[in-house]
Q: What sequence folds into this?
């Protein structure tokens, strides 16, 4: 991903927090020589050696998994908030722009066996059920229901590189108060989230 140096975030702890809070990503690999992408949960976890990995699963009906062995190099894309920034908010004439947060994770994929896939599914469900009013657990489900795991392919991605773009009007610090004020007045989540991010920059 092309990232101008002033938008590059190399704070790994901040990036890990972002990945944990924005775990719905896009898995990209090559299928029959063409790019293929699937939108799925991709959870940041540790492997048995303590290395950072991403875990996920896709349906066996999705042909993407059939290329996993031949195309182990994958790209995972995670999008954060984004917002249009009007140059009418600037002190000097300039073109408008778009502020955003995006993280690309590159890695090597390996397919998990059925037991490992089930362990991964337990972690996924437990994480997102924790805030439910009436949380469910896969432990409470019948063997018949859990047979559905045979219809998915679980995988783990060894992280090789992380690229993080945090474009937050860093080149226009003099205009931050106006940008934050204008974005905060909008109703959409992205504008308000970007306003908050710009506002907490040191």
A:
């Amino acid at each position: 991903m092309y990232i101008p140096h002033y938008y590059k975030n190399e704070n790994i702890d901040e990036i890990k927090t972002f990945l944990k809070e924005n775990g719905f990503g896009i898995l990209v690999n090559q299928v029959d020589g063409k790019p293929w992408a699937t939108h799925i949960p991709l959870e940041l976890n540790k492997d048995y050696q303590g290395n950072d990995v991403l875990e996920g699963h896709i349906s066996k009906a999705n042909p993407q998994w059939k290329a996993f062995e031949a195309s182990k190099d994958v790209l995972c894309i995670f999008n954060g908030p984004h917002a249009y920034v009007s140059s009418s908010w600037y002190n000097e004439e300039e073109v408008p722009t778009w502020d955003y947060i995006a993280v690309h994770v590159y890695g090597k994929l390996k397919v998990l066996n059925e037991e490992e896939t089930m362990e991964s599914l337990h972690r996924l469900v437990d994480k997102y059920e924790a805030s439910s009013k009436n949380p469910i657990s896969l432990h409470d489900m019948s063997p018949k229901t859990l047979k559905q795991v045979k219809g998915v392919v679980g995988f783990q991605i060894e992280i090789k590189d992380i690229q993080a773009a945090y474009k937050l009007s860093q080149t226009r610090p003099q205009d931050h108060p106006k940008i934050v004020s204008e974005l905060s007045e909008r109703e959409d989540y992205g504008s308000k989230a970007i306003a908050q991010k710009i506002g907490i920059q040191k």
Observations:
- The radius of gyration is 20 Å.
